[in-house]
Amino acid sequence: MAKKPHTTMRGIIPAMVTPLLATDTLDIEGLHRLIDHILSGGVHGLFVLGTTGEGPSLSSRLRRELIDRTCRHVSGRVPVLVGITDTSFIESIGLAEHAADCGAAALVLAPPYYFPAGQPELLEYIRHIAPRLPLPLVLYNIPSHTKTTIEPATVQAASDVPGVVAIKDSSADMIYFHRLAGMLKDKDGFSLLVGPEELLAEAILLGGNGGVCSGANICPQLYVQLYDAAVGRDLRAVAELHERVMAVSNTIYRVGQYESRYLQGIKCALSCMGICSDFLAEPFHQFGQQQRQTILKHLRTLALTGLDN
């Protein structure tokens, strides 16, 4: 199957939350406000149905609706990347075809997350699925959620598979990231993206092409500025902007007590900013009033405007 042509992925590609009003109901007005808010920060793309987008928790119908509405509202302003990770090979292909029909630019795929695959099995899976996909494919390394690391040798072999154009690494393992950077530095057209925004500056300075940053839902321009400073090797600006990114991480992401707190914090912050609802898909739930007040306090300290009372 012929793929759409692609340019090297770079820059800040926010991992967008999925605004919800109820368990299987999109917050459509909030979605439009959120997309416009993120794009106003000068980002280079948009990634939907990832971890921050609660992709695996959403129904097949809602995922398709989100892809359709997002692509229509973005209307070509930036490339839209769509997560197609699923335990079912066929479901991933079906979602990929829908994304292509809606005008998406690329697909993002993590290893199937129920049966842990060995590296030869994972490489075989990539070689089987890539020819079936209508768009360029970004691999997604997130072993905390999938039980499987895409080992460097597997990434190197997969980078030779037609249609595989990038990897997003959310392992938070910079030794792993450095190994990938060294292996892939001469691989023309293949992008290396980092997930954890706390590592964005280091990743760009040491050979990465961009970041898929969750905090860019809240303050997209900050992450674009940090990316630009790192690309330009303006180390004084990098240090200052990295400190501001860490301030988001150390406040908004630290309010709750469970691992879901970063997602609860982002959605609560967006609600406080009047952008979209803070409803979460099961098994998670929005913050209570006390935690919401803490988020509001942090947003004011971070000097983010547009807050409710």
Describe this structure in words.
α1 crosses α2 (60-74) and α2 packs parallel to α3. The mean pLDDT is 95. The radius of gyration is 18 Å and the shape is globular. It is an alpha/beta fold. The chain has helices at residues 28-39, 60-74, 89-102, 119-129, 143-146, 152-158, 174-184, 200-205, 220-231, 235-251, 261-272, 289-301; strands at 11-12, 20-22, 25-26, 46-48, 80-83, 106-109, 137-141, 164-169, 191-194, 210-211. It has 12 helices and 10 strands. α4 links the parallel β6 and β7.
Chain-wise SSE layout:
Elements: E1 11-12, E2 20-22, E3 25-26, H1 28-39, E4 46-48, H2 60-74, E5 80-83, H3 89-102, E6 106-109, H4 119-129, E7 137-141, H5 143-146, H6 152-158, E8 164-169, H7 174-184, E9 191-194, H8 200-205, E10 210-211, H9 220-231, H10 235-251, H11 261-272, H12 289-301
Parallel strand pairs: 1-10, 4-5, 5-6, 6-7, 7-8, 8-9, 9-10
Antiparallel strand pairs: 2-3
Helix pairs in contact: 1-2, 2-3, 4-6, 9-10, 11-12
Task: Kindly list the characteristics that best describe this protein.
309 residues, alpha/beta, TIM Barrel, eight-stranded parallel β-sheet, two-stranded antiparallel sheet, 12 helices, 10 strands, 11% strand, globular
